[in-house]
Predict the 3D structure of the following.
Amino acid sequence: MSGLSVGMFLFLVSVGMSLIFGVTRIVNLAHGSFYMVGAYLMVTLVEVLPDRPWAFWLALVAAPLGVAVLGGAIEVGLLRLIYHRDPLMQLILTFGLILVISTLVLLVWGPDNKSVSRPDALAGSVLIFGQRFPSYYLLVLGLAPVVAVGLWLIFYRTRWGMLIRAATVDREMLGALGVNVAALYTQVFAFGSWLAGLGGALAAPTVAVALGMDGDVLTTAFVVVVIGGLGSFAGSFISALLVGLLQSFGILVFPAVSIVLLFAIMAVVLIVRPWGLLGRPEE
Amino acid sequence: MTASARALGLLAVVLALAPLALPPFFLQLLTEIAIVGLFATAFNLLMGFGGMVSFGHAAYFALGAYAAALLVKRAGVPMLLALPAAPLAAAAGALLFGFFIVRLTHTYFAMLSLAFAQIVFTVIFKWKSLTGGDDGLLDVWPPAMLKSPAAYYYFTLATVALSLFVLHSVSESPFGYALRSVRENPRRARFIGINVRRLQLLAFVISGAFSGLAGGLFAFYNGSVFPDFAYFTKSFEPLVVALLGGAQSFFGPLAGAFGFKILEWLVSRQWPVYWPLFLGTIVVLVIVALPQGFVGLAGGQGWRTRLIRKS
């Protein structure tokens, strides 16, 4: 169960990362930082807002939006300048952003761990198959299919989703057909950041909100995206669940090697199918 | 005698006389610069000359550091015999991982190298009985005759200078030029009879070996080794240094190491907390504004190429 909900957070982060890669061809290493900012914004919003039942839900909506604005600003201010450059320069730039964001978070929120209390309605736990589970995890698990279906609807049933899919296949052609590709990039980047922020905001009540969380999430989300296939939406979903489960069971069965196992699987996938389970080969 | 050879000779004299004028602290800083410079130059053999960007070079740095430290701590081998084990262990690791990594290109090359580095990090972190896990291995000091800052400075300087000479010879050898041709056009290189993968693997192993030597030197400089040596943030150090200095020239990373370490010292002396912010901002600015690094700026190259590309 907790494995599934970890998979859910991972899915939100990695699908955003994968989406951004699919459209802009940028592997956004700062994606874990967006997740962390989402969690910290959640902390502040829950503190600042009046102590009412709706405050938690308002924060849950507002925190990811804040991250989306941050992501959009980064895209317009920095990434837009370097799309024509070597992809590795883009990778290094987003790595520089990790350092900048983590220091800024330290300066704004201080070095101490923070926590977010769960909303009253979900503070308890429920019995499932004779085992106690915090009801908050049920919310997370309930949201998983909603988000997955929502994303599917967006990608396959809206014009915007169609443009995104078109952009992943052939950007130049899309631009030649009169679509404002630059604006689409910004939107996609902001949307991907929003997903990471949502993951962070949702995860905030289940973990200690701390400074190292960007790196932890980044490495795992990275594995998820690579196993699933960069730019593949379904691939991220399957592989996030797989990795989430593997992590929580791995820790029970063979604690010492669970992370090695994760990276070993990633290495095997990269060797056998470098473009991931459901991705497309690099041209 | 060419101008660059004269400049090198002058630099050698200045560095050799440095202990007479500088307090121990600055000798330590120079020692660190030399080690980081070697690490970044070894890394840049892949990036600058081979067009292969590894995101996991910390793995080889750490393999070298731990191989040397383990031999001293667990087997009681004297330091001067343990140090040569550093490049050997790193080369073995680079051969094993590189065999798979060079099969991929570009982004995937970078990602698989990162994955292997994370495996190395995790193994070091978890294998407490051998590596000490999170606590690292302490008391890894060189013998008494090399223990003073000046002595270790000379030792490092000599080792690094020798290594740079070897790396420079490699980069100027037919092998080095074959490597450049693979960077420019792998398919064409294959047509003229170059075994691309074997060449890339060999470059990977050489680069790994010297990264390991840098790790070994750092272990004895630091007196201890920690799992952080293999962490992914460490992998970005040579990348940033090479980028700052200019990856297109052989001595770029060395200049980058100089700038990087001096800047790190200046900034973290005043505001230790701000150093990552500073570094991150510099990285972002260099990428957006100075594609050729600072060495490129000095030569006026950076702006010219930018203008040409824009027009």
Remarks:
- Confidence is low (pLDDT under 50) at residues 298-311 of chain B.
- The two ends of chain B are 39 Å apart (CA to CA).
- Residues 271-311 of chain B form one domain.
